[in-house]
Amino acid sequence: MTGAEGPVFVRGLSRSGGTLVVTMLDAHPSISMSYELYPNMLIDAPAEDLHQVAAQLEDGNKVPADWPNRFRTFFVRTARGGLDLAEVAGLLRDHAEAGLGFDNNAGRVGFVERCGQLKRHKEGKARWGAKCDSRYADYTEALPTASFLNVVRDGRDVLASQLTTGSFNTSAEQLAASWTRTHEKFRRMVRNGRIRGHEIVYERLVADPAAVAAEVCAFLGEDFDDQMLTFHQLDLSIFDATHLSMDRISQPVDESKVGRWRRELSDADVAAFEAVAGPTMREFGYEPSS
Q1: CATH: 3.40.50.300, 3.40.640.10, 3.40.50.800, 3.30.980.10. Which one for 8-39+127-283?
Q2: 94-107 pLDDT, tens per residue?
Q3: Among 149, 138, 143, 116, which residue's Cα sits nearest to residue 18?
Q4: Alpha-carbon span 151 to 208, nearest angstrom
Q5: Cβ(217)–Cβ(2) under 8 Å?
């Protein structure tokens, strides 16, 4: 079976396993994946402004300091997809010369596509993809043949990870609300035919990665390949960059982080999370503790 049409986008709340899924897909011989290149990070800039940024990237290998931090972060993250700043500068020039800026959705999503397509071309693969946020309509408006994967993980484990890794500055209540909105929205969009989507349960993935990866490949119209399970041994672009999840994707899949909330969360945080997310937890197969 050969690959179906369209890019592959992976959605997952931070610390839910989205990076693991992207890396497993990137190990597939036919799929080239980038990481956190979100269109909404690209500021409202017309095409003519992009020439200035391209020149600075070529010159000083940095985005102008007076541009917003999220914009500069986008270009730092292109390294996770194996692109250097000179290559990204070239993409910016091509984008601007095509009359496209970042002042509309087509221009923003289109630039994410340029980055993904360049990585795909460099690796000689048939299909590209990246992480995405929950603005699904923006993606499908520009890329109507896209497929979406949503990674669902016990929100209490997500909370435990966010509280101990990085600087997420979240509360149990805030994360519970975000967890609920994110996963309910995905199911609603799939149910209503708004997107072509497939759900990945993190706990199933780490318990039986071969079976879950095979299901994902079937959804995408791709043959399963064993390299998806040995991603940590491959020369993937992410391993030449930096990422908060590097320690986890540098080793085989395991179940060691399942249920970490029982060891790491306070009773107060568990109660606060479950008070908000309890009904949705049950809908997704997670039983509240009380």
Answers
A1: 3.40.50.300
A2: 999 999 999 999 99
A3: 149
A4: 15
A5: no
What are the phi and psi torsion angles at 175 (to 5°)? -65, -40
Place of tokens 């390294």: 79
Which tokens go with 15?
Answer: 């610390």
Q: Is the CB of residue 20 less than 8 Å from the CB of residue 161?
A: no
Q: Report which of 129, 179, 173 is spatially closest to residue 158, judged by C-alpha positions.
A: 179
Q: Can you name the residues that pair with 32 across neighbouring β-strands?
A: 128
Look at the pTM and tell me if it is higher than 0.70.
yes
Average pLDDT, the chain: 92
How far apart are the C-alpha atoms of 32 and 155, rounded to whole Å?
Answer: 29
Measured distance CA(3)–CA(220) in Å, rounded: 7
What's the gap between Cα 26 and its chain centre?
12
Domain boundaries, the chain: 8-39+127-283
200 close to 151: Cβ distance less than 8 angstroms: yes
123 within 8 A of 34, measured Cβ to Cβ: no
Side-chain-facing half-sphere of 162: CA atoms under 13 Å: 23
d(CA 105, CA 146): 15
The bridge status of strand 196-201 relative to strand 31-33 is unpaired
Please state, in angstroms and rounded to a whole number, the distance separating the CA atoms of residues 245 and 255: 15
184-207 pLDDT per residue, tens: 999 999 999 999 999 999 999 999
